[in-house]
Design brief:
The complex is a heterotrimer of chains A (about 450), B (about 60) and C (about 350).
Chain A lengths: L13 E8 L2 E4 L4 E3 L2 E4 L1 H8 L5 E9 L5 E10 L2 E3 L24 E7 L1 E7 L7 E4 L14 E9 L5 H23 L8 E6 L20 E9 L6 E4 L2 E2 L6 E3 L9 E4 L10 H5 L2 H8 L6 E10 L3 H17 L4 E5 L6 H14 L3 E8 L20 E6 L3 E4 L4 E4 L21 E4 L15 E5 L1
Parallel strand pairs in A: 1-8, 2-4, 6-23, 9-11, 13-18, 13-19, 19-20, 20-21
Antiparallel strand pairs in A: 1-12, 3-4, 5-11, 6-9, 6-10, 7-8, 14-15, 14-17, 16-18, 22-24
Helix pairs in contact in A: 5-6
Chain B lengths: L1 E4 L2 H7 L3 E4 L14 H19 L7 E2 L2
Parallel strand pairs in B: 1-2, 2-3
Chain C lengths: L9 E8 L16 E4 L4 H11 L4 E9 L1 H6 L1 H14 L4 E4 L6 H14 L6 E5 L4 H6 L5 E3 L7 H16 L18 E5 L4 H14 L28 E6 L3 E3 L15 E4 L11 E3 L7 H5 L7 H11 L2 E2 L2 E4 L7 H17 L4 E5 L2
Parallel strand pairs in C: 1-3, 1-4, 4-5, 5-6, 8-12, 8-13, 8-14
Antiparallel strand pairs in C: 2-3, 9-11, 10-13
Helix pairs in contact in C: 1-6
Classes of the chains: A alpha/beta (about 450), B alpha/beta (about 60), C alpha/beta (about 350).
Chain lengths: ~450, ~60, ~350
């Protein structure tokens, strides 16, 4: 019997990120990147996706910023990336076997396409998928209106059960992203924008400083809450359903590699798409100024489960894990809304009980008139909250020239209703229905204040 | 009124007085993992707790578990 | 208001109670409403201060009503007097200031709220403990005044400044900045900085011990006294209510999967259980696979019927359902009030509410 020698993990883990800009999308053979324009070979991609027996049909479409296009019902948005580290792939544990507890995270290089995303749509599975408007008043609510989209409109075979339907569509998105990345991101590459991200040392390492800022800099940690409540409400870490995990520390740059992926979107406004996870701005900012403006103490991921016992257990463990990083303060981001407010408050109160100062990122559900209580749960220690907006706020979206997907579902999306279609073809709809509009990782600038 | 719900902290926050903790969000009075007869017993027990709570005098918010 | 009309006199109608209307004190609180041509009492100060601010106004009429009369006949008074006020074609209506006079504050708030949908701008003023504040603050702009008439000058000055803005059709973005009470309404806006940056900045301030301002002040949830316990179950009518969205298949009332604007009332007549082919979950906030397989998991009719037989209570023949997914508290309160009134009328004595 022989064992493969585990690779030595050198601390701190460092990743070099190379971003290649895409300025246009088109269909042509072969799949390639030419002067910033990404060409996709339709037949090659569709036959790759249709090798999944659950898929009956795949239609590909392109949407560009500024076009009069509505993409609906969106399931996930993914950025194509390629890892140049031999034993550490993108979407680890999803497209290939990878176990974060058996393998170590190795330093190295990752390449991504920026300005372009793979977006999955398809016949409605549940109430929660949303829309992306590429122009008009809806466009300013989400960064996705600034991207070039390769849209996969997926039809599954009749009789496919809901959980299988969701998984099929989810996997198709990752396979398509991976296909594109492998086709165009292998070296040698055109020039892109580079940055090197250095992760915090693991706790207990000789170089890891203790609390009370030994070098005068504040120590900041990040508690990353992930929604894990069942069909369309799930999130995966290295392919494992996060509801089945205990909270754990991750190496922050794991997110670049798609270690955290979305199980599709509920509600559209505040479920993190895979793109959001891959580009978590809290992690990126904490890393970029790590060692200069502050010390980034580390990142812990935790779940939002559906039983009281699980919520209490996870919040205790998450708070203890964060405390072991010896931070002065912690940013806590939530995902979803409603009962996850209870998780947020438990996390907050237990962290504050450790003497760690908290700032919480959350959206609000204050009713269409803004007159209702925004959160379902509260705690006196939740005294520092950043609001990512009232998701019940109503906006009017005009009819757009082209719909990619199927817009008949609009009245059934969370945030829509049978009353929302106006006589001139416009829809009066809550922000809830717009993908990423009140995202609680803090990508957007929308907020809410007391009038 | 007796409130049968899973996330009792929310029920406490919004001010319900008689609170009965239930199984889980997608199936408060059920458990698909149990055989049907056991599941029905579980449901009956939860309801019985709710009915007992309605007959219990209380001064403040009370969880009946 | 058009450009041409900016140069004409602004017409104001003023509402006051029996005291400020010069009729009398508490002993005259039951007088019926009547109208005086021109300003009366504090209306003179109002007119004067408007003109000092170079706003050419005329109080064309003062509507006077006794505080008790208004309180006892609110619907009738509004029905009769709103058209009277409209008949004067006012550009602005001023009510009060009511200071700490409770019935007066409630009357002022009611009048301003009634004018709102007619597009007639209105303002009022009262003291922070006036019950009219909590009742009307969300829909009416209420200037903060002192508790007694000694604060008249200050209150009227603030009303004048706010009044001028409203006459000019200016949108009031920040009531607080105008000397008004916060309306307690959340209003979306685009900040200069993305939220992740604001969060990190706020944390740095908090760690340093610097003052910072939360973007969402945690609210206070009210409490109700626990109902006395039932002494016995025999013969008691118990109703089932659910926020888990269990409705007859097809969701006949189209209750929304989130932000429900309504609730449904459905018959349990003859039903000893719920089945997947006759009931479903309309709730978009949880995985409803299990509820759809067996709706009793959320609305437990099957076991309620068994317990009904065993323990001798009666299951109310109607159940009420809504979707508790992002439901605004305002709507939830409205539903509950309506449902409670109906239940009491129908002899329901207790409720079991199930939530997901």
């Amino acid at each position: 019997m022989s064992y493969a020698k585990p690779k030595e993990v050198v601390q701190p883990v460092t990743h070099k990120w190379n971003r290649i800009a895409v300025s246009d999308l088109g269909f042509s053979s072969p799949t390639r990147l030419e002067n910033g324009k990404l060409f996709i070979h339709i037949d090659e991609l569709t036959s790759l996706l249709q090798s999944d027996p659950n898929i009956k049909d795949v239609k590909l479409a392109i949407a560009r910023p500024g076009e009069s296009v509505r993409i609906i019902p969106v399931k996930d948005v993914i950025e194509p990336r390629l890892s140049l580290i031999p034993d550490y792939p993108v979407f680890p544990g999803v497209l290939s076997a990878w176990d974060s507890d058996a393998n170590g995270i190795l330093s190295g290089e990752i390449v991504s396409l920026s300005g372009m995303v793979v977006t999955t749509v398809g016949s409605i599975v549940g109430f929660q998928e949303g829309l992306i408007d590429m122009s008009g008043p809806g466009a300013r609510y989400s960064l996705f209106s600034q991207k070039h989209h390769l849209v996969l409109d997926i039809t599954v075979k009749e009789g496919t059960k809901r959980h299988d339907h969701e998984k099929t569509v989810r996997m198709a998105g990752f396979k398509a992203s991976d296909y594109i990345a492998r086709s165009v991101l292998k070296p040698p590459l055109s020039a892109g924008s580079h940055e090197t991200l250095v992760n915090p040392e693991y706790p207990g390492s000789p170089a890891s400083p203790k609390r009370a800022g030994g070098n005068g800099k504040p120590r900041i940690a990040y508690l990353y809450m992930l929604q894990t409540q069942g069909l369309l409400h799930d999130t995966y870490y290295c392919g494992v359903d996060v509801k089945t995990m205990l909270p754990r520390r991750i190496v922050p740059t794991e997110v670049l590699f798609g270690a955290i992926v979305s199980g599709n979107c509920v509600s559209a406004c505040d479920k993190n798409t895979t793109y959001h996870q891959q580009n978590n701005p809290i992690i990126l900012d904490l890393l970029r100024r790590h060692g200069t403006d502050w010390d980034f103490a580390g990142c812990v991921i935790t779940n939002e489960n559906v039983t009281l016992g699980d919520k209490q257990r996870s919040s205790t463990l998450a708070a203890d894990l964060i405390a072991s990083l010896s931070p002065d303060g912690v940013i806590v981001s939530k995902e979803g809304f409603g009962n996850p407010d209870a998780d947020l408050m438990m996390n907050c109160s237990k962290l504050e009980a450790h003497g760690i100062k908290t700032v919480l990122l959350t959206d609000e559900f204050a009713g269409q008139d803004g007159a209702s209580q925004s959160l379902t749960d509260t705690h006196p220690k939740a005294d520092a909250i950043v609001s990512t907006g009232n998701a019940n706020g109503v906006i009017v979206l005009p009819p757009l020239e082209k719909v990619i997907g199927d817009d008949r579902v609009i009245t059934e999306l969370a945030g829509g209703s049978s009353k929302c279609l106006l006589p001139d073809g416009s829809i009066a709809i809550e922000l809830q229905a717009l993908i990423g509009s009140t995202n609680q990782l803090g990508f957007e600038r929308i907020s809410s204040r007391m009038k | 009124m007796a409130h049968v719900c899973s996330i009792i902290t929310i029920s406490q926050t919004v001010g319900a007085n008689r609170i009965i903790p239930s199984v889980a969000i997608p199936h408060p009075l059920g458990n698909p993992k149990l055989p049907p007869e056991e599941e029905k017993e579980l449901r009956r027990d939860l309801l019985k707790k709710a009915l007992d709570a309605l007959q219990t005098p209380i001064e403040e918010q009370t969880v009946f578990s | 208001m058009t450009e041409a009309s900016r140069n004409r006199k602004y017409r104001i109608v003023h509402y006051v109670n029996q005291f400020f209307g010069g009729v009398g004190g508490e002993e005259k609180a039951d007088i019926e409403p009547f109208t005086i041509q021109g300003p009366q009492g504090p209306g003179r100060l109002l007119e004067k201060l408007f003109r000092e601010e170079n706003a050419d106004v005329e109080i064309v009429a003062t509507v006077v009503c006794g505080d008790s009369y208004f309180a006892d006949n609110q619907e009738d008074v509004l029905r009769e007097q709103i058209p009277v006020i409209r008949g004067y074609h006012p550009d602005l209506v001023v009510a009060g200031p009511a200071f700490n006079a409770g019935r007066y504050g409630m009357a002022c708030g009611a009048i301003c709220q009634a004018l709102e949908p007619l597009g007639i701008p209105s303002i009022t003023a009262m003291y922070k403990e006036n019950p009219g504040l909590d009742q009307y603050r969300k829909t009416v702009l209420i200037v903060e005044s002192a508790d007694t008439v000694s604060g008249m000058d200050d209150a009227v000055r603030k009303m004048v400044r706010l009044g001028i803005k409203r006459l000019r059709g200016e949108k009031i973005e920040s009531p607080k900045a105008e000397g008004c009470f916060e309306q307690g309404i959340r209003q979306n806006y685009f900040h200069e900085e993305p939220a992740y940056r604001r969060a990190i900045d706020m944390l740095l301030q908090k760690i340093k011990g610097d003052s910072f301002e939360t973007e969402y002040p945690i609210p206070f949830f009210d409490r109700v006294e626990p109902q006395p316990a039932l002494t016995d179950l025999k013969g008691v009518t118990i109703a089932l209510v659910t926020s888990g969205g269990i409705v007859p298949t097809g969701n006949p009332d189209h209750i929304e999967s989130s932000s429900a604007s309504k609730y449904g009332k459905y018959s349990l007549e003859g039903l000893t259980t719920l089945e997947t082919n006759n009931h479903q979950s309309a709730h978009g906030g949880y995985d409803n696979t299990y509820a759809n397989e067996d709706p009793n998991r959320v609305l437990p009719i099957d076991m309620m019927r068994k317990l009904e037989k065993a323990l001798g209570f009666k299951v109310h023949p109607w159940y009420y359902a809504t979707v508790g997914n992002g439901t605004s508290v305002g709507n939830a309160q409205k539903f509950a009030k309506e449902i409670a009134v109906e239940m009491i009328r129908d002899g329901v004595q207790a409720v079991i509410l199930t939530s997901t």
